[in-house]
Design goal:
alpha+beta; eleven-stranded mixed sheet; 47 strands; binds beta-D-glucopyranose
Length: 938
C-alpha cells in the first residue's frame, strides 16, 4: 500500500518535473536542443534591473552522453531579432550566467526577447530556441519623474490605515500598460475594482533607508476605454509595524505610496500617470494591520465600489505629499510572496467554551480564510497557534505562550447580519490551529481554510523515502522552508522575532537549495547583507537589521556572507551570486582573516560574541570556551569556500593561495586542539563532527584516532545527538566520512529524545527550534524561546539527499555527480530523489527487491555522473537490455573495487540492475563501503 502511495506521488512528481510538451517540429540536426531559458534565474521576469542581466538554459538530447561544444545568443526588442546583441559563436559548454557584454546598455521599461542555439560535440547547430523574454523596470530617478510619494490625510499608528484613489482618462486604444509601485509600508493596488497582481506584502522587506523594491505589474487587461480608477490600501508591514522583539516604527512613522502607470497606445505613443497631489484618501477598513499582532478589519469603513471609476470621492481628502527618500528604488529581483496553497481544515476539535478550534493538519505560515455568519455588531476573532496544550487543565486549548508578544489575532466586525468570507490581507501567522470566536455558531469544517503564504520559489527538489518517519522528516524540512522564506529567510514565523538570523540560513542553505531554486531569493538577501555590512567588513547577526536595536555579530552567523553564496553557487553552478557580491565578500573575509591571524597563529579567537558556540546544543559546555575551536573551524571552511569560489570566478592563483592557507589553518587546528589519542579538546559531538566532517583532521592516521574517539563519545551519549545549530549539519556527514553510515543511520532513525524522529513521534509537521520543544511527558520546553517552525535542524536534509537519495555533488551545479545511495540498510528499501538543476533533471530512484537492486538514473545533458552499486563483480551489473552495464551506450568507464562497481556515465536515462545486497555487514558496517567525501578535501 505504501509502495503504491509512493509510486503515485512519484508519478505526480514526474509530471511536475517533466519538460513542457512541445508541438511537433522538424527534428534538429544537432543531438542537443535548448529547452528552458531563464533570465536572472527566473522565467520571463517582468521588471528586472538593466545593469546585470544573466542568461541560462537547459538542454535535451536524443542520445546519451551528450554535451554542447558552442553556443550563440541573440537579443532584441522583438522575437527573433538580434538588434540589441548578437553574440559570436562561442566555443564553450557553459550554460549558466551568460552575460550581456558591459557596453550594451538596456533601456528601462522595455521588453527584450532572446534566443540561444547550441552546437553539439560533432559541430552540428541546433535550431534557435523558442524566444524567451525579460522586461526591464524603472531604474533611475529620471524614470520616476512625475511620481510623488503620497500618504493618507489621516495617518497615525492609532488610526485606520489609509485607502488612496485616483481616476484617469484613456482616450485611445491601449496596446499595453505597466504599473510600477512601491511603498513605505505594505500595499495592495486595484484597477477598476480588480486586484493588481497576486503578490502579498509587497514591496517586501529590505533596509528601507537604503533600498526599496518596486513591483512591476502587467495591467493591460484591467484597463478600459475612458475613465479608469486606481485604488490602493496601505498598511504598516515591516516599515512601521512591529518587527523583531517588539521594535516599532523602525524605518519611519508615515506610510507612503509611489506608483507610476505607463500606458502604450495602439498607435505607439505612451502616456504616464503617477501618484501625485490629485489623489484622494480616507481612513479605510484596516483599523489595525500588523505583521505580528494581526489585523483588525472594519468593513463598515469600506465604501462600496471605492476603487471603481464611477465612485464619487468628493468627500475624500486630498492626499498628503510625503518627503522623498534617499533609498534607491530597484525592481524586485526575486519571486514575490504569494498564496502558494489553500488547505482545507482537517477537523474541528472538541474544546470547552465559546470558541471553536480547527486543525489544519500542518504547521504553516499564512492566514485563515473563513466563511462565517455573524450578526451586526459582533466581532469575529481569529487566533492562531502552532500547538495545543497537551496536558493539564488547559488541554486542547491554543498554546500561544511561545508567541511571546506577537498578538497573532485577526478580527472582523460585522456591519450587518450576513455571511462573509474573511481572509486577512496584511499579516501572516505561523500556525496549525485556528480558533474562531465571537460568533454564535461554529462554521463547518469545510468553511475553514488556511491560505499558505511565502516567497514563491520554484520547487526543484524532491526526496521520497519508503521509511515513513524519514519521509515525514523531508516533508517537515520542506514546510519549514516554505514558511520561513517570506521575503527574507527568517528564523521563525510565529513569535515576536521573525528575523533574518544569518546563522540559521547559513546552516540551512545547502538543504534549501536542493528543495527550491534559491538563486533569486538568496541573491536578493545578499543585497540586504551588503546594505548593512559594517565598515570593518563584518556582517550583523540579523539581516535586514531593523534599526540598531540589536547590534551583534557572530561566528557561524556573520559567516553566512560566505556560506550562503557558496551554497547557492554550489547547488546551481551559477556564478552570478558570486560576481555580484565578490568585492564585499572579500572585505568580510579580510575581516575574518585579520581577526584570526592577529597573533600569527591562524587560530581564530577574536570574534567571540553573544552567539559564539553551538547554539542550543545539549552538551552543557561553556559556549565561549567552545568558541575558539568552532571559530577556527569556520575560518578554515570560509577559506576553503573562498578558494573554490575564486576558482569558479577564474582566479586560479588566488584559489591556490587560499587552498594552501586552508590547509595551514587545518594543521594549526590539529596542533592546537587534537590530543595524541585523537581526542579533540572539549570533546563535544560538535567539535568531532566539525573536525572530521570539515576535514580539519586530514591525515588518515590522525583521522582514525579521532574517528574512534568520536564514536566513543557518541556511545557515551547512547548514540543520540547533542549538537546545536552549528554542529548538527556536520554530524552525519562526519560519520559517513569515517565509514560509519551505520551510525549515521542510527542517529537519524532514533525516535526517542533527543532526535529528529522524536519530534515526528510527538506529531511535528515542521522542524522545531530546540530538541526539547515538547518533552517526552508532553510538557512544552522553555517558553521564552520555543518555536515549532525553525529550519536550522532541517540541515540534515542535505545528507539525506546525498546518502539516501544518492545525489552527491562532485562539481558545482552537479556538473559531476556521484550517485551512490545507501541501498542496503534494512530501514530503507526504496528512495526517489530528483533535483531540477540548471542543467536539467538529475534523478536517482532505487529499490531493493528480493531479486536484486534496481537503480534508475537521469543525468542531465552536459553533465556526468559516477554511479556506484554494490556487486560481487562488474559483470553482474546490468543496464537496460545490456547484460553487462559497462557495455551500454553512455557508460564511459567501469571498474570494480571492494565490492562496489563504479561506472562513469554521460548524460541520459539509465536503468541499472544488480544482484541482491550483500547482507548488512557484521558490526553494522555498511555495504558498500563509505563513498562519502567531506566538503573539505582532507
Ligand atoms: C533565534 C535563532 C537565532 C538565535 C541567535 C534566536 O532567538 O530564533 O534562530 O539564530 O536567536 O543565536
Amino acid at each position: 500500500m505504501r509502495t503504491r502511495a509512493l509510486s503515485l506521488a512519484f508519478i505526480a512528481a514526474a509530471i511536475l518535473f517533466a519538460a513542457p510538451c512541445r508541438a511537433a517540429r522538424p527534428r534538429d540536426a544537432s543531438e542537443v536542443t535548448v529547452t528552458e531559458l531563464t533570465t536572472n534565474a527566473r522565467t520571463n521576469p517582468l521588471g528586472v534591473d538593466t545593469d546585470d542581466v544573466s542568461f541560462g538554459w537547459t538542454m535535451r538530447a536524443r542520445v546519451r552522453d551528450a554535451r554542447p561544444s558552442a553556443y550563440q545568443v541573440r537579443v532584441g526588442t522583438a522575437p527573433g531579432s538580434a538588434q540589441t546583441w548578437a553574440s559570436a559563436r562561442i566555443a564553450s559548454d557553459r550554460q549558466t550566467d551568460i552575460r550581456l557584454p558591459p557596453d550594451i546598455r538596456l533601456d528601462p521599461a522595455t521588453r527584450y526577447h532572446w534566443q540561444v542555439r547550441v552546437w553539439d560535440r560533432h559541430g552540428r547547430a541546433s535550431r534557435w530556441s523558442r524566444p524567451a523574454w525579460f522586461e526591464t523596470g524603472l531604474v533611475s530617478a529620471d524614470d520616476w519623474r512625475g511620481a510623488e510619494w503620497i500618504g493618507g490625510a489621516v495617518d497615525a499608528a492609532d488610526q485606520p490605515r489609509p485607502l488612496l484613489r485616483d481616476v484617469l482618462q484613456l482616450d485611445k486604444p491601449v496596446r499595453q500598460a505597466r504599473l510600477y509601485a512601491t511603498a513605505r509600508g505594505v500595499y495592495q493596488l486595484w484597477v477598476n475594482g480588480k486586484p493588481v497582481g497576486d503578490q502579498y506584502l509587497a514591496p517586501g522587506w529590505t533596509d528601507y533607508n537604503q533600498r526599496l523594491q518596486v513591483q512591476t505589474y502587467d495591467v493591460t487587461a484591467l484597463l478600459r476605454d475612458g475613465r479608469n480608477a486606481i485604488g490602493a490600501a496601505l498598511a504598516d508591514g515591516w516599515f512601521r509595524g512591529k518587527v523583531g522583539m517588539g521594535w516599532r516604527t523602525v524605518y519611519g512613522q508615515q506610510l507612503a505610496l509611489k506608483a507610476k502607470l505607463r500606458v502604450t497606445y495602439a498607435d505607439g505613443s505612451t502616456q504616464d500617470f503617477a501618484t501625485d497631489a490629485r489623489w484622494r484618501s480616507i481612513p479605510g477598513p484596516y483599523v489595525q494591520a500588523d505583521l505580528q499582532d494581526g489585523e483588525r478589519y472594519d468593513p463598515a469603513r469600506l465604501p462600496k465600489a471605492w476603487n471603481e471609476p464611477g465612485f464619487d470621492a468628493a468627500a475624500w481628502a486630498p492626499v498628503v505629499p510625503r518627503p522623498d527618500t534617499a533609498a534607491k528604488l530597484v525592481p524586485q529581483p526575486d519571486e514575490p510572496v504569494r498564496a502558494t496553497e489553500v488547505r482545507a481544515a482537517r477537523a474541528r476539535l472538541p474544546v470547552p467554551g465559546d470558541a471553536f478550534v480547527y486543525d489544519v493538519g500542518q504547521n504553516i505560515v499564512g492566514v485563515a480564510r473563513v466563511r462565517v455568519r455573524g450578526r451586526a455588531g459582533q466581532t469575529l476573532r481569529l487566533r492562531y497557534a502552532e500547538e495545543l496544550y497537551r496536558r493539564g487543565a488547559r488541554q486542547g486549548e491554543l498554546y500561544t505562550d511561545n508567541l511571546r508578544t506577537a498578538g497573532a489575532t485577526d478580527t472582523y466586525t460585522f456591519a450587518r447580519d450576513e455571511t462573509v468570507v474573511y481572509q486577512p490581507r496584511f499579516t501572516p501567522h505561523g500556525f496549525r490551529y485556528i480558533e474562531i470566536s465571537g460568533v454564535d455558531s461554529a462554521p463547518d469544517v469545510g468553511e475553514v481554510q488556511a491560505v499558505v503564504l511565502g516567497s514563491d520559489l520554484p520547487a526543484i527538489g524532491d526526496l521520497r523515502l519508503s521509511n515513513p518517519m524519514l519521509d515525514q522528516l523531508v516533508r517537515n524540512i520542506r514546510w519549514g522552508q516554505r514558511g520561513n522564506f517570506l521575503s527574507i529567510p527568517t528564523d521563525t514565523p510565529a513569535r515576536d522575532e521573525r528575523l533574518g538570523w544569518t546563522g540559521d540560513i547559513s546552516v540551512f542553505a545547502p538543504t534549501a537549495s536542493r528543495l527550491q531554486d534559491t538563486r533569486a531569493f538568496l541573491s536578493k538577501w545578499m543585497d540586504d547583507m551588503r546594505d548593512v555590512q559594517r565598515p570593518d567588513g563584518n556582517i550583523p547577526a540579523i539581516v535586514p537589521q531593523p534599526g540598531k536595536a540589536f547590534d551583534e555579530t557572530g561566528v557561524g552567523w556573520s559567516d553566512a556572507f560566505v556560506t550562503v553564496p557558496y551554497a547557492v553557487w554550489h547547488a546551481s553552478g551559477d556564478t552570478r551570486i558570486l560576481r555580484r557580491n565578490w568585492a564585499a565578500m572579500l572585505r568580510f573575509y579580510d575581516f575574518v582573516k585579520t581577526s584570526a591571524t592577529a597573533d600569527g597563529n591562524l587560530l581564530e579567537e577574536g570574534r567571540a560574541s553573544f552567539f559564539s558556540g553551538d547554539w542550543l546544543n545539549l552538551e552543557g559546555v561553556d559556549r565561549l570556551h567552545e568558541h575558539r575551536l568552532i571559530a577556527t573551524a569556520y575560518f578554515a571552511e570560509d577559506t576553503r569556500m573562498m578558494a573554490e569560489m575564486a576558482a569558479a570566478l577564474g582566479d586560479a592563483e588566488q584559489a591556490q593561495a587560499w587552498q594552501m592557507l586552508a590547509r595551514r589553518i587545518r594543521e594549526a587546528f590539529v596542533l592546537a586542539y587534537r590530543q595524541a589519542d585523537g581526542r579533540i579538546e572539549l570533546g563535544t559531538q560538535t567539535v568531532y563532527a566539525m573536525a572530521l566532517g570539515m576535514g580539519l583532521v586530514s591525515f588518515p592516521g590522525d583521522r582514525d584516532g579521532t574517528a574512534a574517539r568520536f564514536v566513543d563519545k557518541l556511545a557515551v551519549d547512547n548514540d543520540h545527538l547533542k549538537t546545536g545549530f552549528l554542529g548538527t549539519p556536520w554530524l552525519l556527514p562526519a560519520l559517513s566520512s569515517i565509514g560509519r553510515d551505520d551510525l549515521a543511520m542510527k542517529l537519524l532513525l532514533n525516535d526517542d529524545y533527543p532526535s529528529w524522529g522524536f519530534e515526528i513521534r510527538m506529531g511535528a509537521t515542521t522542524m522545531w527550534e530546540r530538541w526539547d520543544g515538547i518533552r517526552p511527558d508532553g510538557e512544552f520546553g522553555p517558553v521564552e524561546m520555543n518555536s515549532f517552525n525553525h529550519y536550522a535542524y532541517g540541515a540534515v536534509g542535505d545528507w539525506m539527499f546525498d546518502r539516501l537519495g544518492g545525489l552527491h555533488m562532485l562539481e558545482a551545479g552537479y556538473k559531476r555527480a556521484r550517485i551512490a545511495p545507501l541501498m542496503c540498510h534494512p530501514a530503507l528499501s526504496e528512495a526517489r530523489a530528483r533535483i531540477r538543476t540548471p542543467y536539467g533533471v538529475l534523478a536517482s530512484e532505487w529499490r531493493r527487491t528480493p531479486g536484486g537492486l534496481r537503480l534508475s538514473v537521469d543525468v542531465p545533458v552536459n553533465t556526468e555522473a559516477e554511479v556506484l552499486l554494490p556487486a560481487p563483480d562488474a559483470s553482474t551489473v546490468r543496464e537496460g537490455r545490456w547484460h553487462v552495464a559497462s557495455r551500454a551506450p553512455g557508460v564511459r568507464d567501469a571498474r570494480w573495487a571492494g565490492g562496489v562497481v563504479h561506472l562513469q556515465v554521460g548524460s541520459g536515462h539509465y536503468e541499472f540492475g544488480a544482484p541482491p545486497c550483500p547482507s548488512w555487514g557484521a558490526g553494522g558496517r555498511v555495504a558498500p563501503p563509505a563513498t562519502y567525501e567531506s566538503g573539505a578535501q582532507p
